[in-house]
């Protein structure tokens, strides 16, 4: 069995928007990131905890599993604290089931809509007429929400395929829990609407994607495409901006600035990708780009053996106060040490959150709009 499907649910947003991207990136090297590894590890830990809570494994089995997991560099108190949010949420959901089942890390087959499509649902719950899938997202770089989320929708189509014959399901709920962003979001849809989406939207695009056909389409989804560095369509779309019909005047006016602002995030990302690609070839394969050279960046001096440095300084006659600088541990480190509750009890009154650096973002951004103190006052 292949480990990754060509049309995976996790990359579905991309191949649904740009069907030929699936085959285009098929032979490009996979990008393994430490964040992905950490995410996989977090899922394993959560699975063991939930299985223990619902008595699927006993105390000894739990201890053995946790002992193995605790050897990983990803195993930290911070990870356990964050996972606790998901685990408590999941256990509460499982315990509230009146008439149905709960499945953990359930393989789901949605090949009825997507060729060879399968994936794993972190938590699948069926209770009377309702089917719910809860998906854990351990990352914090990109906020993921349940609304219109194609990945979890495909999982639900897979779950319906498997369980509809056993349960009379008419409504589905899709929930995403992203504990590091303190976010739990849910979308509820009628089964018939989701199936219609699967038949009329997903199926035709998946067929095109599987055959490597359809139109290339660049957009925000390009950031997770392995072809993003050298994709011609993406380059063309970004270069189109340069050809915008600007006025023949020395200074840009507001309308022209706004046109650029609307595309600035994608252009910055694209420019960074091109730079990363060129740099990586120069560093790793000795590629020479005409007119460019590799240089060393600025670096700071550092001691190679701090223990010996301290010994020498003591021998030289310096006191401890002259050798070391005492500094307070960070808020995060102290919070980890004391636990959230104790930290708030002891130090809550001494913590303030200064105003963050102001950033101009699109209106659709989920963060609340900043109001200046004058505006607040009025
Ligand atoms: S980079 Fe964007 S446009 Fe190019 S193949 Fe990937 S998703 Fe499609």
From TrEMBL:
Q: Which InterPro entries match?
A: DUF2800 (IPR021229)
Pfam families of this UniProt entry? DUF2800
**What is the protein name for this chain?**
Phage protein
What species was this sequence derived from?
Caloramator australicus RC3
């Amino acid at each position: 069995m292949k480990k990754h499907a060509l049309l995976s649910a996790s990359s579905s947003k991309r191949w649904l928007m740009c069907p030929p991207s699936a085959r285009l990136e098929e032979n490009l090297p996979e990008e393994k990131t430490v964040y992905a590894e950490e995410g996989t590890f977090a899922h394993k830990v959560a699975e063991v905890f939930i299985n223990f809570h619902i008595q699927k494994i006993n105390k000894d089995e739990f201890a053995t599993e946790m002992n193995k997991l605790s050897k990983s560099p990803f195993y930290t108190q911070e990870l356990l604290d964050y996972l606790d949010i998901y685990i408590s949420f999941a256990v509460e959901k499982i315990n509230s089931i009146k008439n149905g089942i709960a499945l953990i890390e359930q393989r789901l087959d949605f090949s009825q809509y997507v060729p060879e499509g399968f994936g794993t649902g972190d938590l699948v719950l069926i209770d009377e007429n309702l089917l719910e899938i809860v998906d854990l997202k351990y990352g914090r770089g990109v906020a993921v929400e349940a609304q219109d989320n194609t990945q979890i929708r495909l999982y639900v189509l897979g779950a319906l395929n498997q369980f509809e014959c056993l349960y009379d399901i008419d409504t589905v709920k899709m929930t995403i829990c992203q504990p590091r962003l303190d976010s739990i979001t849910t979308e509820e849809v009628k089964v018939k609407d989701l199936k219609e989406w699967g038949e009329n939207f997903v199926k035709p695009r998946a067929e095109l994607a599987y055959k490597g056909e359809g139109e290339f389409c660049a957009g925000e989804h390009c950031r997770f495409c392995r072809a993003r560095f050298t994709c011609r369509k993406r380059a063309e779309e970004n270069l189109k901006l340069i050809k915008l019909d600007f006025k023949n005047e020395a200074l840009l006016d507001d309308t022209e600035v706004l046109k650029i602002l609307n595309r600035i995030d994608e252009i910055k990302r694209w420019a960074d990708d091109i730079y990363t690609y060129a740099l990586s070839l120069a560093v790793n394969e000795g590629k020479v780009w005409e007119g460019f050279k590799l240089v060393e960046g600025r670096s700071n001096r550092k001691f190679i053996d701090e223990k010996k440095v301290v010994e020498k300084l003591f021998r030289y006659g310096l006191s401890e106060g002259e050798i070391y600088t005492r500094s307070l541990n960070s808020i995060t480190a102290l919070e980890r040490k004391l636990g959230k509750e104790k930290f708030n009890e002891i130090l809550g009154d001494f913590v303030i959150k200064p105003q963050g650096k102001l950033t101009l973002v699109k209106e659709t951004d989920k963060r609340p709009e900043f109001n200046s103190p004058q505006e607040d006052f009025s």
